[in-house]
Amino acid sequence: MVYLKNFLELGISETFNHTLRENGITEATPIQEKAIPVILSGKDIIGQAKTGTGKTLAFVLPILEKINPESSDVQALIVAPTRELALQITTEIKKMLVQREDINVLAIYGGQDVAQQLRKLKGNTHIVVATPGRLLDHIRRETIDLSNLSTIVLDEADQMLYFGFLYDIEDILDETPGSKQTMLFSATMPKDIKKLAKRYMDEPQMIQVQSEEVTVDTIEQRVIETTDRAKPDALRFVMDRDQPFLAVIFCRTKVRASKLYDNLKGLGYNCAELHGDIPQAKRERVMKSFREAKIQYLIATDVAARGLDVDGVTHVFNFDIPEDVESYIHRIGRTGRAGGSGLAITFVAAKDEKHLEEIEKTLGAPIQREIIEQPKIKRVDENGKPVPKPAPKKSGQYRQRDSREGSKSESRRDSRNGSRSDSRNSSRNENNRSFNKPSNKKGSTKQGQQRRGR
Q: Where is the Helicase C-terminal domain positioned along the sequence (predicted)?
């Protein structure tokens, strides 16, 4: 059994230890155990850890220990790729400040009232949590003063790279003091992240949590082999069978997420979509409703779900298999949280087998296959009542086609007897009566007759 240290041993004060215990946190996770003493010593660090490992508290607790509440300066800056993650970090900080009301934190992101942000920035704000775009806007307006900044954190740096924020991050770092402590956290280490670290960090200490330290022991994993066409039916069958309390359904793209949302919403499921095309205000309403269990199914893309931390998620459905192992672990980590159990089901088509093999190789074991028999699923209206299948069309056009068939036979017989000209005139007249649209293309009527006569 691995001994996990408590936070007092790591150098965290009793004030924050008491708050941690009040929140049910008594032992440090591996990333916290490794990172907290190094951060408290003032060194730059690069932390390679995935979401769900406790990395937020790993940098938040040392930052809070070093804040001087008597100063009105912005002393710590945390930059996150999405508004959702920025709000999540801010919430975590506020949880730790129930006994330290002398420390103030402010979240800055797009979609907020700028005037309200300006008023708060003029007050005593010690910690700012921001997205790159809005932060850079304040820097250029000179409405935020970072001249006395002592700590900066770049959280989920690989995702900021994915969003195209690399140049924004460089501009932000250029506006901060050279003597600050810099921390960079990332699930993966692309070469551009390494270049960024080399340019802006002072002999950073690498802290890494290996994949095997990210536990998925409390999550039951299954694979359902299907086809792309049959995926929606297979998903709905499992949803109806398992009746999840809360579930996240992951799609590879915004288009697929939106299409699946329309499908499930039309069938009466209590669901919402979360992706980059959803306006920020609506995204916040969706997340609030999901946390309050007013929405049962959240259909999301990987990027939109970054930082998604909701207790009570019982199921994760990978409607589309992720293309890398890190995303798979991040996805299924949305369930089985806080010591609870969870179920992750991945729908796999033949073209997905390569990605599945990579995931199983990293996990060190095959994922259990599940075979399901899919019943016919009936369409329902907004009140949940079955919608009858539409009857086949019986328009006059079909009866006219029958009459044309007879005319065509007669026309052919006439043409064989040398009455080709009369046949064409008769066909044109019949065609005009049937469609009320004369043909302007030479020979088109004859070609149409030949096609219909096959």
A: 218-379
194 with 232, same domain: the answer is: no
Phi, psi of 376 (to 5 degrees): -70, 130
Statement to judge: residues 129 and 62 lie in one domain = yes
Highest-scoring range by mean pLDDT, 182-191, 258-267, 325-334: 258-267
What does the DSSP assignment read for 182-236?
A: EEEEESS--HHHHHHHHHH-SSPEEEE--GGGS--TTEEEEEEE--TTTHHHHHH
Of 444, 45, 370, give the one whose Cα is nearest residue 208: 45
- Which is it for the CA torsion 292, 294, 298, 304, positive or negative? negative
Q: Are residues 104 and 35 in the same domain?
A: yes
Cα separation of 62 and 150, whole Å?
12
Judge contact between 414 and 373, C-beta under 8 A. no
Q: Does residue 37 sit in the same domain as residue 97?
A: yes
Q: Which residues pair with 188 in a beta bridge?
A: none
8 A C-beta contact, residue 341 and residue 220? yes
For 414-446, give the DSSP string.
HHHTT-HHHHHHHHHHHHHHHHS----STTHHH
Pair (18, 129) in one structural domain: yes
DSSP3 helix / strand / coil % (the chain, rounded to 5):
45, 15, 40
Q: How confident is the model at residue 409, as a pLDDT?
A: 45
Instruction: Write the Ramachandran bin of 231: left for phi over 0, alpha for psi from -120 to 50, otherwise beta.
Output: alpha
- For residues 15 and 99, the answer to whether their CB atoms sit within 8 Å is yes
Q: Using CA atoms, how far apart are residues 51 and 411, in angstroms rounded to an integer?
A: 75
Q: Are residues 169 and 291 part of one domain?
A: no
* pLDDT score at 403: 40
Q: Specify the CATH number for the domain of residue 116.
A: 3.40.50.300
Range of the domain at 333: 219-369
Closest listed residue to residue 207, CA positions, set 6, 45, 4, 3: 45
CA distances from 218 to 26, 214, 291, 357 (A): 19, 11, 21, 22
Note the residue count of the chain: 454
**Quick check: is 4 in a domain?**
no
Query: Would you state the pLDDT for residue 128?
Result: 98
Q: How far apart are the first and last CA of the chain?
A: 78
Say if residue 449's pLDDT is above 50.
no
3-state SS assignment for residue 256: helix
Which residues have CB under 8 Å from 42's CB, separation 6+? Answer: 181
| More confident of the two residues 393 and 243 | 243
